[in-house]
Design brief:
With about 210 residues, the protein is mainly α. About 55% of the residues lie in helices and about 0% in strands. It has 13 helices and no strands. About 40% of the residues are buried.
Length: about 210
């Protein structure tokens, strides 16, 4: 899906699917944020959603990818072999989500509220910033005034941009978003990622969208 085009159609802009100056300015107006804040939202979303085209997390990991990405699989390589894709079988994405996102397999500071069977898969990353875990998804649904049993697919298809705004408003809380310098981009990335994954790409995208809004 092209989520830029979806936004353009909603607000009666030319639906060309290109995030240019007019679309960026409309987003800033709709969201009521500064140029810097809007740029951080768009820069991070660009990376998280694969250029505004993916509203649901893919867990199509190879065996080696699981071991390199998740400590759980690093410590349990036999399960990585069982769940990851290889030349003869696809990745078992449901098993991966229900394993790495299960609170029973996560340290105290990184629990996601996934305590029920199937929570990991049902609450895998969704929306413009890939909300992950029952706790975060239910916080969003409350913020949006939606029932807690709302089908998560609706966040992917209807509330992609709302999820992005929620994340910055309630989780990032606009910290470091008053500048698009290297330090600010690194700190915002750290809040979102817990590290600096794809930092160069996130920084470049943030500055690109800021240039459109200046």
């Amino acid at each position: 899906m092209n989520y830029v085009k979806q936004f353009q159609e909603q607000y009666y802009l030319q639906p060309d699917g290109i995030l240019g100056p007019k679309t960026a300015a409309k987003m800033q107006c709709v969201w009521g944020r500064s140029a810097e804040e809007t740029a951080h939202m768009l820069g991070q979303c660009y990376v998280e959603s694969k250029a505004f085209t993916q509203g649901r997390e893919s867990l199509n990991y190879s065996v080696q990818g699981l071991i390199e990405t998740f400590n759980f699989y690093k410590n349990n390589p036999d399960l990585a072999i069982k769940h990851g894709r290889n030349a003869s079988k696809p990745a078992d994405q449901i098993a991966i989500a229900n394993t790495v996102y299960d609170d029973a397999n996560r340290s105290e500071n990184y629990k996601l509220g996934n305590t029920r069977k199937g929570d990991g898969w049902n609450n895998r990353g969704v929306g413009g910033i890939q909300l992950t875990g029952r706790s975060n998804v239910e916080r969003f649904l409350k913020w949006k005034g939606l029932p807690l049993d709302t089908n998560r697919d609706l966040i992917e298809t209807k509330y992609f941009w709302d999820a992005l705004l929620f994340y910055f408003d309630q989780i990032v809380r606009w910290r470091y978003c008053d500048s698009v310098d290297a330090y600010a981009c690194a700190k915002v990335t750290e809040i979102i990622q817990g590290g600096n994954r794809h930092l160069a790409e996130r920084t470049a995208a943030t500055r690109k969208y800021y240039a459109l809004l200046k």
